[in-house]
Each structure stands twice: as structure tokens, then as C-alpha cells.
Batch of 3 targets.
Target 1
Amino acid sequence: MTAGTTEPLRLRHELKHQIAPQEDLVLTHRLRKLFPRDSHAGPDGSYRVTSLYFDTPYDTALREKLDGVDRREKFRLRYYGASPAFLKLEKKYKVNGLCGKRSARLTLQEAERLLAGEDAFLLERGEPLLSELYQKLRGTLLRPRTVVCYDREAFLYAPGNVRVTLDRDLRTCGGSAGFLSPGSFPLKPLDALTVLEVKYDAFLPDLVRLAVQTPDRRAGACSKYALCRRFD
């Protein structure tokens, strides 16, 4: 993807649950037998995800999530692995129970400018998502809020375009300091937990639905951003 492209809109189902370490062991053993891993995974089958979430001074994104507002959105910067060389600005949104994501590539230099408070380039790029972020920065005082970092193991299943992920070793720090310098900023680990995510298009195949069942799963949705905000 070049610096000037924006991904097309696509709405998908997205289920998230917090599971205990024992459930993680059971699911991992089962999923590894049934489905191939994401090709981007490292030798251990996982890869690191580091995100910097934005929010308003009134914690709009957090409050809307906790209140279950059906139409909501949040912005984040994200990179994978140990290097921020490939960065994305992402906007996640939820509409009528379905989730979508728009994204645009940022260079490392642009991300540094953004975190330093320089935002004019967002309009100069002429991309709708970047222009929208500029308006939110100026209009709602959207600002970098919390770093969320974890290790992800992902599995794929072509029917239904299914993606099952297990996000482990969740850790966080407030603010944006050090976000672009991995290893140089303190991350506070959360209690031992795994976040299970199941994403699919029009239908969830029975094979996947049965594969992700565990007897003690906690009911309700789970947000890694909301979990990490408890440690601000």
C-alpha cells in the first residue's frame, strides 16, 4: 500500500470476549489443529501489535463504548512488530451492530509531526480520512490518549472470511511518549487474560462457532482500549 491509498469501506461482524488462561490453552490447542495461522506471524506463531488510541478531553470514545452506544468511532495509530516503519492511521466504527475500519498509511516522519502537534499535512495529503482527523483534532480536541500493546496469534478460515485472534500479554501506558520508540517506554502489564476476537462477513460457519466455544467464557463484549484505560 502506498502512502496515498485508503482502504475501502467494509462492514463485518466482530465478537470479542475476555477469556481466562485455562480457556486460552484449550482454545489454542483446538484452533492450531483446525485452522492455518496468519502468514505474517513470527516463528512462535504470533506477532506484536502496538496502537496509540485518541480520545477527546471528555473521553467520548471510552464513554460511548462503556455505554453501548450503537453508532460510535475511534481513531488510532498502529504498527506491527518491533519497528514503526509501517504505520497506519485507522478509524474503527460501529453501525447497527456491524463494525468497519478505514485506514491510511502514514510515514514515520508524518507520525512524528502528528504527535508533535503539527497537523497541517493532514489537509495537504488530500485524503478524506486524514481530513476527517484534522477536523476532529480541531473541532473536538481529539488527542493521543493511551498506548495499547499485545501479542496476537491469528487463525484464518476462508468460508465466511473468518479471522479468529487471541491477543495476549496486554500492556499499556498513558500518553504518547515513546510510542514510536519500542522498548524505550514503560508498559504496565494487565492481569493475566486473553482477548478472543472472531471477525466474519455475512455468516459464521458452524465449524468456527463450535471451535471457539469454552464453558467458562465471560459474557459480554470486551474492549482492549477500555481495559487499558483502567490503568491511566
Target 2
Amino acid sequence: MNERSARVRWEQRTQQPLLGLAVVFAVAYAVPIVWPAAGQDVRALCTAAEWVVWGVFALDYLVRLALAKRRWEFVRTRWLDLAAVLLPLLQPMRLLRLVSTLLLVGQRARLATQIRLTTYVVGAVVALLMFGSLAVLSVERESPDGNIKTMGDALWWSFTTMTTVGYGDHAPTTGLGRVIAVGLMLSGIALLGVVTANIAAWFIARFESDDVEERRQTAAIEALAEEVRALRAEVAALTGASGKVPRPAPRPGVAAEEP
């Protein structure tokens, strides 16, 4: 129990700093794509920032693993965290670092009790929209047959892809761009499902709350009616035993009336 408490405390304390580092990663990832004319020093700085952020997330995973009492169970239940940590090591690609960082941020954000599902879904939609646009622009801009050449084109393509509209005016032509498109489509369908389920659950909860309140009021009315029936029966019993209706007791300070 103490081991689990130590891990939970660590996760709670590091949640906000890690989310801040995720913002740093987002900026470092976006700058070379949005600013193609950036110098080599700027690109090197952005790449270093991306690896530093990934390294901090990897260190966070190792610390949580060390604090876990049942480490094998921790690895088995947090396999997505492990995959996100190991993913950039398989092939040093910026896209893999992007995917792994998004996975790690998503896992840590779900630990926050103060972040409601709607806020999380909105944040996930915005993050996927922006990072999907940046990722497809980075691989399609240099393609001879590509038609996604500007950030505006990339944003439009990402929005239509996530919503599964697919106008077809812009489409990836490279293999990696199509892989990004598949991931974006699947993510968009999943997020739309979450939004729909969340709205349905809200309506169901409201209806259940109304039903509970109605049942509570009905039970109170039935209890009150039962008490009234019991009082009537008691009055009838007293009347039958004495042959007259019992008079109410006089209030203090008021003289009793003579019959």
C-alpha cells in the first residue's frame, strides 16, 4: 500500500510539469515545419528539445516502475507507456517521437481526476488536428506529386480526414503520408464515438436522476399516507373505547374549556 501511495504521489506531482514539457515538445516539433527557412542551429535546438522531452518521459516511466510493488504487473498493465518509451529507439524518426510523446501525454492526462472527459476529448481533438497537420506537411511538402504544400492545406486536409468527410481536394501521395492519414481517420472515428457516448451517458444520468427523485417523492407520499391511516385507526380505536371523541390537551397558559 505504501509503495502504491508513493507511485501515486509521484504521478500527481509530476503531472503538470510533464504536460508543460509536452507543450515544449509541440513547439520544438512545429518550428522546423512551419518555418522551413530556419537555420541549422534552430533545427538542432528543436531536435535536442524533442529528445530531452522524450528522455524525461522515459525517466518518469522508470521511476514509476521502481516505485511499483509488483513491477511485472505494472509493465503488463502499462504496456502502452512502455511501447511509447521504446518506440523512438527503434528508428530515430521525428514522427515516431511525435507518436510516442502523444501516447505518453495521453496516459498521464487520464490520471488527472480534475480533467473531465469532455476537456480531455477536446484537447485530444486539437492535438491530433495540429500534429496531424504538421506531420503530413513535413512528409508531403517535398513530394513532387504532393498537393499539400502549406499549413492551411494541411489543416484543411486534417479536419476533413478526422471527420471522415474526405473531399479529395487534398490527399497524401507518399507512403508515410498515407500511414498518417490512416491513423488520423481511426483516431477521428474513435473520438467521435467517445463524444457520442459521453453525450448519451449525460442524458441517461439526467433521466436516472429524475427517476430517483420521483421515486423518493413517491415513497415519501406513501409513508405520509400510511401515517395518516395509522392515526385515523388510532383515533377510531380511542373513540370506540370511550364513546366520545377525545379532546385535545390544553396548551400551556390556556385554561381548559368547560364541557
Target 3
Amino acid sequence: MVRNTAVMKLRRLSPGDWVTWRDLRLTALASDPQAFGSALSREQGYDEARWRELLHPRWGVKVVAEAPDPVGLVAGVPHEDHDDVLYLYSMWVKPSFRKRGVGEALVRDVVAWAREHGWRRVQLRVFRGNLTARRLYERLGFSGEDEVMQLPVS
């Protein structure tokens, strides 16, 4: 599915889009390694089958923002411990596209997907020192203490 936001479009990915997801995810890990719970060296070792598996619909939704090339990404995956929670992770926008509404559009698309698929809550972790991200999520209705924030969607 493609959604237009001015000159930017959002695209929900399928396993056939694995190269797009891989390339942007590795770019994000190289650019801002402290923002993620994974490491560039780890994910560089993934083979095509692993990247395709990450994009399988049973693992939720992966969305990229394109303007026209990929400039941001986000994922929503089923929470490991809570059946009613979609976990938002991997939110990242290329530095030259920040503060242009790309992050907001990406998060809104995951929340919309959660509603479309009957999830009750969207939850995320934001590192304590990442005030810019925390402000974004609060603007979008997320709340919470410490690093965990959530948004009821049903």
C-alpha cells in the first residue's frame, strides 16, 4: 500500500522488498548505532532468507518513506509477551529529512495499520536521552514512564 504525504510517499513492504528494507536498515544502524537495540555488524551478516523472513506479514508491518528514494523506516511487530500489543521499533529518518514530518507520518501509518488489524495497543521503547523522539511520540498521543511508552488504539 502506498500513501502520499506531499512529495513523500509511504510504502508498506512485503518480502519481495527485502533489498529496500535491508539497505535502509543498515544505513540507519551505521548512521545512528546508539539509537537501536541491534548492531550493524550483526545485521550485515543476515542472508536474503533472513531479510525476507523479517518482512513476512506474520511479523507485522514494515514501512518506508520515499522522497523518491527511501528516507525513513519503521516497523510494527507483535509483542513477545502481550498478545494485544503491537511493538513499534526501528523508527529512523535520514538526518537531512528530519523535522519535516517524516517520522510522524511513519508512526501514524503503523498506528493506522494496528487499527486495521485489531491491535489494542501500540508500545515502544525510547531511550531516556532521546528527547526529540520522546517529544514526537508524546505529540502523537503516546505516554509512559521511563523508556516504555504506549498508545491505546482500540
